[in-house]
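Treating backbone geometry as a discrete language has practical consequences that deserve illustration. The sequence in question and its structure tokens are set out directly beneath this paragraph.
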Amino acid sequence: MSKSRKSASLVIALSFASLALSGAVLAASKPRGLPGSVTQTTGQATDKRPIITDTSIVFGAYDPHGDFGDDPNSKIEHLFLPWEDVDLSTLALADEYAVQRGRSLLITVEPWSWSVDWRVTSDELLKGILAGRYDSYMASVCSAAADLKSPVTIRWAQEMDETNNQFTWAHWQPKSYIAAYQRMITVCREHNKTAKYMWSPLGNPDMGDFYPGDSYVDIVGLTVFGLQQFDKDHFGKDRTFAEALEPGYRLAEGYGKPIVVAELGYEGDGEYVRNWAENVAKPNPEFPKLTSVVYFNDREVYPWPGNYGRPNWRVGGPVVN
């Protein structure tokens, strides 16, 4: 990365009290997900965290606010990182944080820079990947992950089947995505012999067109969000977690792999939230391959199409935006 790009990087002050790093300043290219010093949510707050019992499936969270920092029920720490402008040494912080809490790491690798000004076009990215110009990027990420003590799952280029122009790689044709995914997993395996690999579509009807093959997938991830107003507008009622999960699950179950809800969130009135909270981690005989759910504990990064804004999934945030 050039000095001009590095100097242009946004910086975020992070406070890792548990890691004795209070007040440390790291580049914004650190993995997203470790708790930092953040402004508290204003307005009336209600804790809407999923209800976990002794019989629940495995629960985890992407948790930049630290709401699950001391929660013994959280067993997966979810991180997001770009591969183009990332300080991979900070993965050691994530690892220490996870080890102290007995958690595994789910690492979503997004094949771009978080700075929009630095991003190449969709076609340029694809051509570069297939030509091997990004092999070293993936090798660096996977080599760093190989040195971690926590069990690691790599989730590369998620939600490739989405249609809202959120991700550069979602513009690729299925055959192109498959070739890129296979190449990146092959590179990663050369540098990390123990990681598992999650193929993680959004769950749209055509997601199967992007399936890269059994030998490249250990786990199938899905995305399931419940937004009450969206449900009312598009389905004429409040959907349950099971109703929101089922379409993607039915498409995924045929692969014979464990299924994980890699990104989960819900937002609505008290009754809506309570219904989701009580059921997202409850074993359901209708979904026997569902092994884990991972909560996205933050406000949505991108506005939802249709003037729904950026829903606030955070468990400690307002119940309704």
